[in-house]
Amino acid sequence: QVQLVESGGGLVQAGGSLRLSCAASGRTLIRYIAGWIRRAPGKEREFVAAIGRDGASTDYADSVEGRFTISRDNAENAVYLQMNSLKPEAPAVYYCALHTGIWSRHTNPSTYAYWGQGTQVTVSS
After folding, report:
1. At 56, is the pLDDT very low, low, confident or very high (cuts 50, 70, 90)?
2. Whole-number pLDDT of residue 1
3. Pairing state between β 18-25 and 3-7
4. In this structure, are residues 103 and 32 in contact, taking their beta carbons and an 8 Å threshold?
5. How far apart are CA 27 and CA 107, in angstroms?
6. Average pLDDT of 100-109?
7. What percent of the chain shows pLDDT beyond 70?
8. pLDDT over 90 at 28, yes or no
9. Is 20 within 8 Å of 36 (Cβ atoms)?
10. Is 84 a residue whose pLDDT tops 90?
11. Average of per-residue pLDDT across 71-80
């Protein structure tokens, strides 16, 4: 199995930036599609971004397109989410997750096999 540990969350003002990191252990990261999925209190999980096994393919939710960038470093077994131009929103926990299947399923949180503990992001107005 794979263990995932997120870090980098916190409180940031609107318009600011934050960089989330995800450290993986147990298996080499290149085996998996990697994604970031968030959940706000009282709401269901929401797909944020995903990146293919070799980093060539990326996809983003419409709400973050153009502001967030997902990246990975397979040699370091790490996934990152650079968040720029942050908007004031309800606090959300961002989870790093790994997918064992095909790319077409990457926007569905239920299809991810491995999850980290999450890191909270709060954007103040």
Report:
1. very high
2. 83
3. antiparallel
4. no
5. 23
6. 94
7. 100
8. no
9. yes
10. yes
11. 95
Reading the block at residue 6, the tokens are 């997120």
Q: What residues form DSSP beta bridges with 76? A: none
Non-local (6+) Cβ contacts of 47 within 8 A are 35, 37, 61, 106, 107, 108, 109
Does pLDDT of 48 surpass 90?
yes
Class of residue 117 by CB neighbours under 10 A (exposed 0-12, middle 13-18, buried 19+): exposed
DSSP string, 27-95: S-GGGSEEEEEEE-TTS--EEEEEE-TTS--EEE-TTTTTTEEEEEEGGGTEEEEEE-SPPPEEEEEEE
Name residue, tokens 């147990």: 26
Give me 117's structure tokens: 């503990």
Tokens representing 76 are 């370091």
Give the burial class of 102: count Cβ atoms within 10 A of its Cβ; 0-12 exposed, 13-18 middle, 19 or more buried: exposed
